[in-house]
Amino acid sequence: MEKVKKRDKARTRLKIIESTVQLMLAKGYHSTSLDEICSRAEVTKGGLFHHFKNKTELSKAAVDHFFYDRVERGKASPFYQIEDPLQRLYGYLDFVAETFESEAPVRGCLLGNLAQELHQSDKDINTHCYQRFGEWILELTHLFSEAKERYAPLALWQPKELAEHFIVVYQGAAILSKAQGANGVVDKHIQHFKRHVEQLFRT
Fold first, then answer.
1. Which of 20, 95, 107, 147 could cross-link 85 (Cys pair, CB 3.0–4.6 Å)?
2. Which one, of 10, 133, 168, lies nearest residue 63 by Cα?
3. What is the pLDDT of residue 122?
4. Are the C-beta atoms of 144 and 55 separated by less than 8 Å?
5. Over its length of 203 residues, how does the chain's per-residue pLDDT go in tens digits?
6. pLDDT at position 6, please?
7. Angle, nearest 10°, between helix axes 110-118 and 55-75?
């Protein structure tokens, strides 16, 4: 019986977090109310506060869920098992583009969205987003470093700088995609970035 209660509690918590992710991706932080989250998750406000003491704590949990869900999906994707580090890197770039395009009608990056919206008004959530960005940069730097070590050890470019550049490309393309209301924008710009990387490994 105790195991059933714990499982139900975990399921309810996850439903609240997933509802928060979807609403905040669609509407942003300030335009998403706790009442809307409760309605979507089918819980009372008291039930929500049983799991999260306030909106800030819930938002940080949503950021973590959004980020680590994509990390785990990447690890479960075929590209992750590719032995060649350069082809694994290219597989990752394609994976990011495909993931974004597959998430219609609500696409975007919760880290980027909240960092943009809250960088002046909520330092706590903004710092939390920046920490996840740091982990993303570290993951990408590792991918670039492995490929560089095998194929371009004497090249002057730095893996971390290229990792940061990719995030800039992705975030900018995501914003442009939403502004245009168009499909394929993120994929197009990631493919541009990929061709740039291919040139770096040829020189």
1. 147
2. 133
3. 94
4. no
5. 666 577 889 999 999 999 999 999 999 999 999 999 999 999 999 999 999 999 999 999 999 999 999 999 999 999 999 999 999 999 999 999 999 989 877 789 999 999 999 999 999 999 999 999 999 999 999 999 999 999 999 999 999 999 999 999 999 999 999 888 888 999 999 999 999 999 999 87
6. 77
7. 150
Which amino acid, residue 26?
A: A
d(CA 153, CA 203): 11
Tokens 């993303």, residue located: 136
Cis peptide preceding 153, ω within 30 of 0: no
CB 21 within 8 A of CB 41: no
User: Alpha helix locations (H) across the chain?
Assistant: 2-27, 34-41, 45-51, 55-75, 85-102, 110-118, 123-151, 159-180, 185-200
With contact defined as beta carbons under 8 Å apart, do 173 and 190 qualify?
yes
| Rounded Cα–Cα distance for residues 67 and 77 (Å) | 16
Integer angstrom CA distances of residue 137 from 58, 101, 131, 133, 168: 24, 21, 10, 6, 11
Give the integer Cα–Cα distance in Å for 19 and 47: 14
Token reading at 104: 């219609």
Pair 188, 164: CB distance under 8 Å: no
Structural contact between residues 146 and 163, judged by C-beta atoms closer than 8 angstroms: no
